[in-house]
Specification:
The protein has 422 residues and is an alpha/beta fold. It is built from 13 helices and 14 strands. The strands form 4 sheets. The protein has a 7-stranded mixed sheet, with helices on both faces. A 3-stranded antiparallel sheet has the order 10-14-13. α7 links the parallel β5 and β6.
Length: 422
């Protein structure tokens, strides 16, 4: 007789992560059959031929002999000093090495920070669409995600009045993802000021996912929230994965700013949880100082002629040329979040469309509903491939949408009062 099945945590049934979920598993099956796929589901620069800058690689190689021992649970002293200096230079109040936490990527630090903050039933205000790790980490730390809308009609920017209307006695934090994944929205200072005022009024922690802070287009400027927040407690997240194209190194940081007295207990909780996992990956930490204070290697990629800029141009032009697509042009980050419109949108289901693109066109995209939105007519693509590749992808997308629009046009709706055939 076989043993009984192992039971898993019930709250896992509430967690979605389609970026690496069912569609990605199906993609691996197709690749095993010999199919060649264009995979646009993950913002993973190394998978598209990008390399971490040479001076960051040298920094690790030059210090490899010093990477064997554990380090302090908050990170290497020199790495924390580099992060603190970077934040101090851009106006973060009370930025000091003692208030910097190095983690195995921002993902680990999001989990640790929510575990330090939440009691069962506490609420976190999250953007919709969000990066789904935020929802998952909130749920798995016994919290409740409460979503504020970021609609395409508003350029995917949130409405502060709506955010404040969602604050309850259980609300503990407001999360911002800026520049935004998946939409590419970039938050102006005036908007940040209003959100800070809400956090101050209600005693909430600001949690700012700023991993794309150096990736902006068409002259858009990044506004960090910590300088705006002043003495309001704020946790700002950054790392090497995106701006410095070093996802696999798993190096992220979080900087706790604002009044130290107001956030003292939270600081100690973060430190305790960091100590329980001993420390973050040590080799990659030696690249932090060069990344933050060395040569800029991302700016040229985001300017006309740069690879990211030209792929973004291909996205915008492809959507403009299609009668089936609408797009809010991304101002930053590494993604586009197009919407399906017109006849092609009739009866449209984003997951079924993503599966059709995979099965018939060898393209892997992410359904928009994976990002915790109430609608099902959007999908996300990454801007990391060459421009020509993305143009080919959208030619295939338009081909599938044209078939759908044609089929939808052939369905004649019944007139009011008419009876269908028995």
């Amino acid at each position: 007789m076989s043993p009984p099945s192992l039971k898993t945590r019930q709250r896992l049934s509430e967690v979605r992560y389609e970026i690496r979920g069912e569609l990605a598993r199906r993609a691996r099956e197709l690749e095993a059959q010999g199919r060649t796929l264009i995979k646009l589901n993950i913002g993973n620069p190394g998978a598209f031929g990008f390399r971490a800058p040479d001076h960051l690689q040298r920094a690790i190689a030059d210090h490899i002999a010093h990477t064997d021992p554990y380090t302090h649970q908050q990170g290497l002293p020199e790495a924390r000093e580099a992060v603190a200096a970077f934040h101090k230079a851009r106006g973060t109040p009370n930025a000091s090495p003692e208030r910097v936490f190095i983690g195995n990527g921002v993902s680990e630090l999001i989990d640790i920070s929510l575990r330090a903050l939440l009691n069962p039933g506490d609420e976190v205000l999250l953007p919709s669409p969000d990066y789904p790790l935020w929802s998952a980490a909130t749920i798995l730390n016994d919290g409740r995600p409460v979503y504020y809308r970021c609609t395409p009609e508003d350029g995917f920017l949130p409405d502060p009045d709506q955010i404040e209307s969602l604050v309850s006695a259980r609300t503990r934090a407001i999360v911002l993802i800026n520049p935004n994944n998946p939409t590419g929205a970039n938050y102006p200072r005036a908007l940040l000021e209003r959100i800070v005022a809400i956090a101050h009024k209600h005693g909430l922690l600001l949690m700012a996912d700023e991993i794309y802070d150096g990736i902006l287009y068409d002259g858009h400027r990044f506004e960090p929230i910590a300088p705006v927040a002043g003495e309001v407690p704020c946790l700002s997240f950054g790392g090497l994965s995106k701006v410095h194209r070093a996802c696999g190194w798993r190096v992220g940081w979080a900087v706790l700013s604002g009044d130290p007295l107001a956030s003292g207990d939270f600081h100690h909780a973060m430190d305790l949880l960091g100590a329980l996992r001993l420390c973050a990956n040590v080799p990659g930490q030696f690249a932090i100082e060069q990344a933050l204070h060395g040569a800029d290697t991302i700016g040229a990629l985001c300017q006309p002629g740069g690879r990211l800029y030209e792929t973004r141009r291909a996205l915008i032009e492809s959507c403009q040329a299609s009668e089936h697509l609408s797009l809010v042009a991304p101002q930053g980050a590494l993604y586009g979040f197009p919407g399906v419109v017109g006849d092609a949108a009739r009866g449209f289901d984003d997951h079924a469309f993503a599966l059709e693109m995979l099965e018939t066109e060898d393209v892997l995209i992410v359904p928009g509903s994976s990002f915790n939105v109430p609608y099902r007519n959007r999908f996300r693509v990454t801007l990391l491939p060459e421009a020509a590749v993305l143009r080919e992808v959208f030619a295939r997308i338009d081909r599938v949408l044209s078939r759908r629009a044609e089929a939808a046009g052939k369905v004649v709706p019944l007139k009011v009062g008419a009876k269908s055939a028995a």
